[in-house]
Write a structure and sequence with these properties.
The protein is α/β, with parallel strands linked by helices and 671 residues long. It has a domain of 237 residues: Single-stranded right-handed beta-helix, Pectin lyase-like (Pectate Lyase C-like, 3 Solenoid), CATH 2.160.20.10. The protein is 30% helix and 19% strand. Strands 11-12-15-18-21-24-27-30-33-35-36 form an eleven-stranded parallel sheet. The protein has an eight-stranded parallel sheet with strand order 13-16-19-22-25-28-31-34, with no helix packed on it. Strands 14-17-20-23-26-29-32 form a seven-stranded parallel sheet. Helix 3 packs across helix 5, helix 9 packs antiparallel against helix 10 and helix 9 packs parallel to helix 12. The radius of gyration is 29 Å and the shape is globular. The N and C termini lie far apart (80 Å). Pathway: Glycan metabolism; pectin degradation; 2-dehydro-3-deoxy-D-gluconate from pectin: step 1/5. Its EC number is 3.1.1.11. This is Pectinesterase.
Length: 671
């Protein structure tokens, strides 16, 4: 009887072991309840998890950690502790091991579990790029692995882990200290910024994401031979669900979600489904069949310019249908997905929640947040913007916000030096318009008449502007400024500046300005002046053949005009455009990671018939793209930045140098 009992017990243990080992590790953690993690089996597996973790903090991928290890395998893993090869967050690696250790710690609060969990978190934070993305492997592995990786939801898994830590819920039983939580918050916010910046704009319309994006240009990038630059129906779904989870989303996040949902609706495929058929040799094969009742599908890969689905073999050649690729690739890869259905299911509930939040915000905004409301219909505090500025307190101790309702404000606006800390917030970029029509000959004040032609003049420091359009409607009559900025720490975001010659003048030696997500158009020298200015994610439109910039950078300024991740476009009649010419001899202008249209001349830069300026000025480019980017054909006196040189062009270096401690990172302002 005793022998029989031992045999039965042994058989049961073998059955449990075989059941455990039959499960996939990717699903293992989430398929067990809390009570299971108090069992001896859970503790034994936890020891495996600790053994597989490398000293750097991360784990390799695709390891079935629930499988029993021999003594020889354990010794081998101990010897590999200091090895840094193939450590990754891909396929759920590292984040799922951290979750397992957290569940163990809840049952057995042992220091070794906590230490390993926090080491894993440190690894994730260390692996993040400065731009907010994560590579597939860290330390970096050569090849496509260095791309920002959304593939198989790698970055989403990381962001979900960080979000759970920040929410301070009971999802993780292990709580980092406040210093680590703050690092986690910074990393999560940088990740969201990266997601927003990598959302692909198709003919000016935001769409979705690629499975991987270049870590420098942020553009869609190629991975394996059959994974070409494209829009991804699969990876984009989880990205949108992540964005929807943000409790208090910014307008940029809301726009990203709405745009992606519209793209999912546009690209869904109905009336077909994937079925497996049995071939004569007994093998299974995937085929596409017609079914009017089939649920929507989305292609894994779609063309960047028109969303057409495509398929690839290992030769990297695109095919129009799944039946045209080899049996091996047809059945060894997921070419269609239904994951966006979860986005479309969640979207109405999310939309309703956001509309409720916005309604509450709008009520609070009009009563409390905005000190002054301008409404030309008479329902605000003032009917004109200038009246509101004139009524603002001089040199205020706190920021004064002027909210401008939609309308065309035909007025010449000046923000004097004593009106510092003004925020001018439009109701919408397209419908809140400040316009005037002064120009050089109309002003008639002599050789300096240009500087009086402005529609808007900013002289007060720490000015912030958002969501409106400033234009000079004089037409092609010579110099006519739309915006004249002669103040320090001035920021414009989501604004448009419309004009012809001399549209935007940025002046003031030593002043720093920041233009983000803006649209600027003009003809000749339509961005000019001596201030240090960073233009980021802006669209620059040439309306005729001429010059974009005319910098007059002071001799001792380290930076002049810096354009990062901008898009250079042109009207149809503009085919011969220079990036810039030196208004003054020490002009500095740099274009980095910008997309340049074919209207940009091969030589790129002009010396304004000033040979000496070729040695005193500094004109440079770095890793730009497009037909207009022809570095080999640029004038010999311009520069292509080296990687070491490009690293110096950070927002902190450009805009924070010579800034007092109290004003550091002023460019992070949102209102």
């Amino acid at each position: 009887m005793k022998v029989l009992k031992i045999v039965v017990t042994t058989v049961l243990l073998l059955l449990i072991t075989n059941t455990i080992q039959a499960q996939k590790w990717a699903n293992f953690v989430r398929e067990h309840d809390e009570a299971w993690f108090a069992t001896p089996e859970a503790k034994e597996i936890a020891e495996n998890v600790l053994l597989y973790q490398r000293n750097i903090g991360g784990w390799p991928k695709n390891i079935q950690m629930q499988n029993a290890l021999t003594d020889a395998q354990k010794k081998e893993l101990i010897a590999l502790k200091s090895d840094t090869h193939n450590i990754t967050t891909d396929n759920g690696a590292t984040t799922q091991e951290m979750l397992y250790l957290s569940k163990m710690y809840a049952q057995y609060p042992e220091e070794k579990y906590k230490k390993a969990f926090l080491l894993g978190l440190d690894y994730i934070l260390e692996a993040q790029y400065d731009n907010g993305g994560w590579p597939q492997f860290y330390p970096l592995k050569k090849g496509y692995y260095t791309h920002i990786t959304y593939n198989d939801d790698s970055m989403v898994h990381i962001m979900e882990a960080l979000e759970a830590i920040l929410d301070k819920t009971d999802y993780y039983s292990i709580k980092p200290d406040e210093k680590t939580i703050e690092k986690t918050r910074v990393a999560f916010n940088k990740g969201i910024v990266c997601i927003l910046k990598t959302q692909y704009s198709q003919n000016g319309v935001l769409t979705a994401w690629c499975a991987q994006h270049d870590k420098e240009t942020l553009l869609p990038a190629k991975a394996r031979a059959y994974e070409l630059p494209s829009l991804s129906g699969k990876e984009s779904a989880k990205i949108v669900l992540l964005l929807m989870s943000i409790q208090n989303p910014s307008p940029e996040v809301i726009t990203a979600i709405n745009s992606a949902v519209a793209w999912f609706e546009k690209t869904k495929i109905t009336g077909i489904k994937i079925e497996e058929m049995t071939l004569q040799n007994g093998k299974k094969d995937r085929v596409l069949v017609t079914d009017p009742d089939a649920k929507p599908l989305w292609a894994r890969f779609m063309e960047l310019d028109d969303n057409t689905p495509f398929f690839c073999d290992r030769d990297g050649l695109k095919k129009a249908t799944i039946s045209e690729i080899s049996y091996e690739r047809r059945n060894g890869y997921g070419w269609y997905t239904d994951q966006p259905k979860e986005v479309l299911k969640e979207y109405p509930r999310w939309k309703k929640k956001i509309e409720a939040i916005q309604l509450i915000k709008k009520q609070v905004v009009l009563k409390e947040e905005f000190n002054i409301v301008v409404d030309q219909s008479g329902n605000g505090d003032f009917k004109t913007i200038q009246q509101a500025i004139n009524a603002s307190k001089a040199y205020p101790s706190e920021r004064i916000t002027i909210f401008v309702k939609n309308g065309i404000y035909n007025e010449k606006v000046k923000v004097p030096e004593w009106n510092s800390r003004i925020s001018l917030i439009g109701e919408s970029r397209e419908k809140t318009i400040i316009t005037y029509d002064d120009h050089f000959n109309k002003i008639g004040l002599g050789r300096n008449s240009t500087f009086y032609t402005y529609t808007v003049l900013i002289e007060g420091n720490d000015f912030f502007c958002k969501n409106l359009t400033i234009q000079n409607t004089s037409g092609q009559v010579g110099q006519a400024v739309a915006l004249n900025v002669n103040a320090n720490r001035v920021m414009f975001t989501n604004c448009s500046f419309l004009g012809y010659q001399d549209t935007l003048y940025t002046s003031g030696e030593g002043t720093k300005n920041y233009f983000k997500d803006c649209y600027i158009e003009g003809t000749t020298d339509f961005i000019f002046g001596d201030a240090t200015v960073l233009f980021e994610n802006c669209v620059i439109n040439n309306k005729s053949d001429s010059y974009i910039t005319a910098a007059s950078t002071p001799k001792d300024s380290i930076y002049g005009y810096v354009f990062k991740n901008c898009k250079l476009i042109a009207d149809a009649n503009a085919t011969k455009v220079y990036l810039g010419r030196p208004w003054r001899p020490y002009a500095k202008t740099v274009f980095m990671n910008c997309e340049m249209g074919k209207h940009i001349l091969p030589e790129g830069w002009h010396n304004w018939s000033k040979p000496d300026a070729e040695t005193s000025s500094f004109y440079a480019e770095y890793k730009c793209t497009g037909e207009g980017y022809q570095p080999k054909n640029r004038v010999a006196w311009s520069h292509q930045l080296k990687n070491s040189e490009a690293k110096k062009y950070t927002i902190e270096n450009i805009l924070d140098s010579d800034t007092t401690v109290s004003n550091k990172q002023w460019y992070l302002r949102n209102n």
